[in-house]
Amino acid sequence: MTVRIAVAGASGYAGGEVLRLLLSHPDVEIGALTAGGNAGSPLLAHQPHLLPLADRVLEETTARALAGHDVVFLALPHGKSAELAAQLGDDVLVVDCGADHRLVDSWAWERWYGGDHAGSWPYGLPELPRADGTRQRDLLRGTKRVAVPGCYPTVSSLALAPAVAADVVEPEVVVVAVSGTSGAGKAAKTNLLGSEVMGSLSAYGVGGAHRHTPEIVQNLSLVADRPVGVSFTPVLAPLPRGILATCSAQLRADAGDVRAVYAKAYADEPFVHLLPEGHWPTTGAVLGSNAVQLQVAVDPDLNRLVVVAAVDNLTKGTAGAAVQCMNLALGLPETTGLSTVGVAP
Ligand SMILES: NC(=O)C1=CN([C@@H]2O[C@H](COP(=O)(O)OP(=O)(O)OC[C@H]3O[C@@H](n4cnc5c(N)ncnc54)[C@H](OP(=O)(O)O)[C@@H]3O)[C@@H](O)[C@H]2O)C=CC1
Ligand SMILES: CC(=O)N[C@@H](CCC(=O)OP(=O)(O)O)C(=O)O
């Protein structure tokens, strides 16, 4: 089977990573590549690493340019996907890397993003356990629409889901996650341009103010089948890629062997790995791979669970998840075109 794909937002970080992965995917032929203001310029001017596509010129992002493809990846700024997606046929698989279709509740969309809610699509975190004992991947098989998760919700939901699902922690969790700058996208922002970010770490969206808070709440509440409170603090770090999340929650008195809970939860998952005891996740180890590395510890003085998790924000945090979900939706082996091997050093 060969599927013809288009990428809207091909000049950006997420679109570029989708293309990097798809260039190694055996079942894909790359069709239209579109952009916003950079339409008309060569792809190579924006993605110098994508040499096999050196002859490609970016087109304007329109439904017409994206028509005639089996799969369309949308890697556009928030709020730009919904209108475009509505113009793409129901028979086309649309994989949206943006936030437009992630949140189920309209009030949450309006509070955190503003404007009209476009409705929710099947959420693209295949490994997420559901309260009924199934996994989220069951909702992705054969779907024609996928809402790819945000990068912070991916890593923190996977870090906490086993403990929440097994009901071994109190339903109030704390996440502090350090991210590389590519998470913010290419669009120039003065605080990302160099001097301010290099050699410095800075927290932002503090005090429950980041728009990923409701997404993490939504995921963990789905896992628990009851409301879960989330205190989330993101931190910007001077590195191009990667997120390291430190997540914690109060253990119940009778929690038992939490490590065994994690080992069982992810035993059959190809991309989520509980590291052997004594090893700790690092962003460097998952660079360019679709892997999530986890390690768990119990603070005996506080009886608190601490989970450390690492992902590459552009791979499992966006484009890798997008390709993984495409595989599921098309009935291909879930791991096709995706690696769990990072780049070191
Ligand atoms: N970066 C990350 O780690 C993650 C990103 N995402 C999501 O992926 C999406 C893309 O993010 P990212 O690649 O980082 O962002 P970038 O800023 O790097 O890229 C944005 C892309 O969208 C295009 N674009 C911008 N405005 C318009 C417009 N009005 N009409 C058509 N195209 C437009 C840009 O084209 P041009 O070059 O012409 O301006 C560019 O191709 C976002 O929704 C983001 O939330 C999700 C998870 C993680
Ligand atoms: C470092 C940084 O700025 N990160 C981004 C999150 C990127 C991401 O995954 O999320 P979306 O797809 O929801 O944009 C932020 O905090 O807004």
From TrEMBL:
Annotated CDD domains: AGPR_1_actinobacAGPR_like, AGPR_1_C
Keyword Cytoplasm recorded: yes
Entry-linked InterPro entries: AGPR, AGPR_AS, AGPR_dimerisation_dom, AGPR_type-1, NAD(P)-bd_dom_sf, Semialdehyde_DH_NAD-bd
Keywords recorded for this protein, A-Z: Amino-acid biosynthesis, Arginine biosynthesis, Cytoplasm, NADP, Oxidoreductase
Catalytic reaction(s) noted: N-acetyl-L-glutamate 5-semialdehyde + phosphate + NADP(+) = N-acetyl-L-glutamyl 5-phosphate + NADPH + H(+)
Catalytic residues, chain numbering: 151
Cellular component, GO, one term: cytoplasm
Pathway in which the depicted protein is active: Amino-acid biosynthesis; L-arginine biosynthesis; N(2)-acetyl-L-ornithine from L-glutamate: step 3/4
Cellular compartments annotated: Cytoplasm
Alphabetized Pfam families for the sequence: Semialdhyde_dh, Semialdhyde_dhC_1
NCBIfam families: argC
Name recorded for this polypeptide: N-acetyl-gamma-glutamyl-phosphate reductase
Lineage: Bacteria, Bacillati, Actinomycetota, Actinomycetes, Pseudonocardiales
